[in-house]
Design brief:
alpha/beta; 5 helices; 25% strand; disordered N terminus; Pectate Lyase C-like; globular; 8-stranded antiparallel β-sheet
Length: 331
């Protein structure tokens, strides 16, 4: 039910929003105090595609049938104990979403951004997660039947204690299958999978094509928008208040040669990757102290990786944790 948080609205048991499209919903959600409450209801043939629903959607114990969330931003939403049938989440932002105890049947999450999402105890049947970004996600103690994860990134993800039948894991990146390892990671507040995910993304940023901001969005869980230009560069920026690994990014691309670019990514404060971990991951570091003209600026530990300069920044406020990652291809 679409409702204003200032009013109490009688809610029908079953809602068919087939006649309401994303433009009408976008207009409604633009009003102060507006929210989208699907809790405990049955919705069929809804179209929420491309909408920014961050912080305004509630969907616990809901039944959603043939609903389209493709390209929508659902960061942090909870679908706990819901029933999702034939729904489309392709390309959606689902970072830190909760699917605890959810039944997911014949749904597609192809290319979705699902960093640190929770699927523990979920039942997933006939659903596809092809090329999804599941960095540090938890799929432990779930039921997986005839699901496809082809090409998905599961670096640091926890997949243990599951009931599986007919699941395809072909060409996936990274996977923790051991119950003992999963238990150890869980006991350390998932610090290890977060670190593994962090370095996996850093390495993939070095390999990524900066011509394609969509590919960068998939890696970072952020959405880029044009940020202006000058005689030499085009700027693209992305930012959100919180994120599973990163909260902001800026891409500065050469106007005449997009292969020459600098990408700067800001690390979420909830993530702490230490200088020791950085030095243990790469070889032949170069140390750059803060600028003498700006003592509060970052110091960097840099490495040459596949022809690009990969730098990790540290600030005086958080000297023990990586504050930013920079991939410099201008040299």
């Amino acid at each position: 039910m679409i409702k204003d948080s200032r009013e109490r609205v009688a809610e029908p048991e079953v809602v068919d929003t087939g006649g309401i499209g994303p433009e009408q919903l976008k207009t409604w959600l633009g009003h102060a105090g507006a929210s989208l409450d699907l809790t405990g209801q049955t919705f069929t043939d809804c179209d929420f595609s491309g909408l920014d629903l961050t912080g305004v959607i509630g969907a616990r114990a809901a039944t959603l049938i043939r609903c389209d969330f493709s390209g929508a931003d659902l960061f942090g939403a909870s679908f706990q104990d819901s029933v999702l049938t034939s729904c489309n989440f392709s390309g959606a932002q689902l970072g830190k979403c909760e699917f605890w105890g959810t039944r997911i049947t014949d749904c597609t999450f192809e290319g979705a951004l699902m960093i640190r999402s929770e699927f523990s105890g979920a039942v997933m049947v006939g659903s596809t997660f092809r090329r999804a970004n599941l960095l540090a996600a938890s799929l432990s103690d779930s039921v997986l039947r005839n699901c496809v994860f082809g090409g998905a990134d599961l670096s640091g993800a926890l997949v243990s204690g599951n009931e599986e039948d007919g699941v395809s894991w072909s060409h996936v990146t990274g996977l923790v299958r051991s119950a003992a390892v999963a238990s150890a990671l869980a006991g350390s507040v998932v610090a290890a999978p977060t670190e593994a995910s962090f370095f996996s993304v850093a390495q993939q940023l070095v390999d990524a094509s900066f011509d394609d901001t969509a590919a960068l969005e998939h890696l970072l869980g952020l959405r880029f928008v044009p940020g202006g230009d000058n005689e030499y560069f085009q700027f693209f920026r992305a930012q959100r208040e919180s994120g599973p690994l990163f909260t902001a990014a800026e891409l500065r691309a050469d106007r005449h040669n997009r292969a020459r670019a600098i990408l700067t990514v800001t690390t979420a404060r909830s993530v702490c990757v230490t200088r020791k971990a950085v030095l243990g991951r790469f070889v032949q570091p170069t140390l750059t102290p803060p600028s003498p003209h700006s003592p509060a600026s970052e110091s960097y530990v840099s490495f040459m990786v596949k022809g690009a300069r990969l730098s990790f920044g540290f600030t005086q406020q958080r000297p023990g944790c990586v504050a930013s990652v920079v991939v410099d291809r201008l040299e």
